[in-house]
From TrEMBL:
GO terms assigned for molecular function: CoA-ligase activity
Top-level taxon of the source organism: Eukaryota
Subcellular localization, as worded in the UniProt entry: Peroxisome
Any one Gene Ontology cellular component term annotated for this protein: peroxisome
Ranges annotated as spanning the membrane: none
A Pfam family assignment: AMP-binding_C
Name used for this protein in its record: Luciferin 4-monooxygenase
Keyword Ligase: yes
Family named by the database record: Belongs to the ATP-dependent AMP-binding enzyme family.
Presence of the UniProt keyword Ligase in the record: yes
Length: 539
């Protein structure tokens, strides 16, 4: 039982919000407000779509889905990479009260099969590129699923047919949600420590949470560039929030750094949402010559922490732009910690603590607990971060999630963290990724942060190599900067770390170089895959 030391529970009151409606009704009301404003832009083709066009397509797609038997609370799936087209059935699912379960097309076929097995969708929107995979999975699962192809097909339903004029489109009325705690969308968790779980996020959690982060008011009528897919909770939130604020959403379908730089310049982007990995890749070789970022007001990134040195390099690449980190979790319906760029105090604390993931946000409560005793800890004491809010998920689809909450109703985030006297939070590591040498726990993230301070290191991952007596022997897997290729050895980096750490934290398994670290579909470095590469002799 946790020590009820409530003085060390941080609670921030909720901000007032307008009367809530279901997402279908809300989006149905918001889209026509912006008419000829640009809603979506594809920088690869230059194609744009107005809110008026998007609204018409969404209504027509809604009617087509109904005509093909999709009913309220039926599950549909969108298995595609980010494109302008795949947002339409996503919005339509809210219009008709269906639940979309969005799956990244980048996943291995075996993972796609596992996820489809969980949700058994009545309809799948996908592309010809992965149609054979989806078709094979549906056949093996023996489920009655209609397959809709966004591009050309002669075998399945074609999405263009869903966009044809309909006699009832001017009379269409969106589905009215009577209980805002009903599931609105299923988002699969990141899968950084195992197979993704099907997270059920409700209407109340999504709509209310958007009104709590004060920085979202800065998005009104702005141009947002993001590289987040609908299979990520940030992609879900950004797409809905875009309609709420009349945003031109520049949909980045390609993660190549140079293309993102040019898109910022070409479309005068005002806000940028990227994973930490993508942002660091963009800044690897500095800002390209001739790229003007003067329109860019702020950058929000997340997925992992940055060192002070990395943050300063990012600031150098984006002079005059507010840059800040955030911590989000799918089970918590999105962002749970961030700095507020409308607050001078937060801006100062962000400059002071560039490796912090931010401060508490409205309508959330926080505590840090001891890993063994569950005693609630105070400032500057490391333990598990737990959060509580009315915006949490309903649970996992067809799976028990009761062990994620403690006896006081706090969600176990799985992060080892601490906060300082200013209530700035710092992530130390993931509990499941702790390594153990003999009887001592080791945080691989702490060793990674030391490696990142070396001027030759661009990115890295620290993993445990099994030892029959000691448990884990630490190994560093390193991507060196282009300028350092051939000038640094693994033994030098090993010695660099061993000279700074305690005996049990030394890199006993050495250092290996790799050209590119394996990532999860949410662009987090996958220690699990990195370790597998080493054990299979691929590195």
């Amino acid at each position: 039982m946790a020590d009820k030391n409530y003085k060390n529970i941080i609670s921030i009151p909720a901000l007032p919000v307008p009367k809530m409606k279901g997402l279908g009704e809300m989006l149905f009301e918001q889209m026509p407000k912006y008419q000829q404003k640009i809603a979506h832009t594809d920088p690869k083709t230059g194609r744009t779509e107005t809110y008026e066009s998007m609204f018409q397509k969404t209504v027509r797609t809604s009617l087509a889905m109904i005509s093909k038997g999709i009913k309220p609370n039926d599950v549909i799936a969108i298995c595609s990479n980010a494109t302008m087209d795949n947002f339409i059935p996503f919005y339509a699912s809210f219009f008709i009260g269906a639940i979309s379960a969005n799956i990244s097309a980048k996943l291995p076929p075996s993972d796609i099969k596992d996820l489809l097995t969980v949700v058994c969708p009545k309809m799948i929107f996908t592309t010809s590129e992965v149609a054979n995979i989806v078709e094979d999975i549906v056949e093996k699962l023996k489920i009655d699923t209609k397959i809709v192809i966004f591009d050309e097909t002669s075998k399945h339903l074609q999405f263009s047919e869903f966009l044809l004029p309909h006699l009832e489109e001017n009379k269409f009325v969106p589905y009215k949600v009577t209980n805002l705690k009903d599931t609105a969308v299923i988002v699969f968790s990141s899968g950084s420590t195992g197979l993704p779980k099907a997270v059920c996020i409700n209407h109340f959690g999504l709509t209310s949470q958007m009104h709590q982060a004060k920085f979202r008011s800065l998005l009104h009528s702005s141009t947002l560039l993001s590289h987040t897919q609908l299979s990520w909770v940030t992609g879900v939130v950004n797409s809905i929030d875009g309609i709420l604020h009349g945003i031109n959403h520049v949909i980045c379908t390609n993660s190549k750094p140079l293309e993102i730089w040019h898109a910022i310049k070409a479309y005068q982007v005002t806000s940028l949402f990227l994973s930490t990995f993508h942002l660091l890749e963009m800044c690897k070789n500095g800002r390209p010559e001739g790229v003007d970022t003067s329109t860019l007001h702020f950058i929000l990134y997340g997925g992992s922490s940055t060192t002070k040195e990395q943050h300063m390099h990012i600031k150098k690449c984006f002079p005059g732009t507010i840059t800040f980190n955030a911590l989000g979790q799918t089970e918590a319906s999105g962002c749970v910690l961030t700095f507020d760029p409308t607050s001078e105090k937060d801006l100062e604390l962000n400059r002071k603590n560039p490796n912090s993931v931010g401060r508490p946000v409205s309508a959330y409560s926080y505590k840090i607990v001891d890993l063994d005793t569950e005693k609630i800890l105070g400032p500057n004491q490391e333990g598990e971060l737990r959060v509580k809010s009315d915006f949490m998920m309903n649970g996992y689809y067809k799976a028990d999630a009761s062990n994620l909450w403690d006896t006081e109703g706090f969600l176990k985030m799985g992060d080892i963290a601490y906060y300082d006297e200013d209530e700035c939070f710092f992530i130390v590591d993931r509990i499941k990724e702790l390594l153990k040498y003999q009887t001592l726990h080791i945080s691989p993230t702490k060793i990674e942060l030391l490696l990142l301070k070396h001027p030759a290191v661009h990115s890295c991952s620290v993993i445990g190599i099994p030892h029959e007596i000691d448990g884990d022997h630490l190994m560093g897997i390193v991507v060196v900067k282009d300028s350092a290729v051939g000038t640094i050895t693994g033994k030098e980096l090993q010695q660099y770390i061993d000279d700074q750490v305690e005996d049990y934290q030394k890199l006993r398994a050495g250092v290996k170089f790799i050209k590119k670290l394996p990532l999860t579909v949410t662009n987090k470095v996958s220690r699990r895959e990195t370790r597998r590469y080493v054990l299979e002799g691929k590195i």
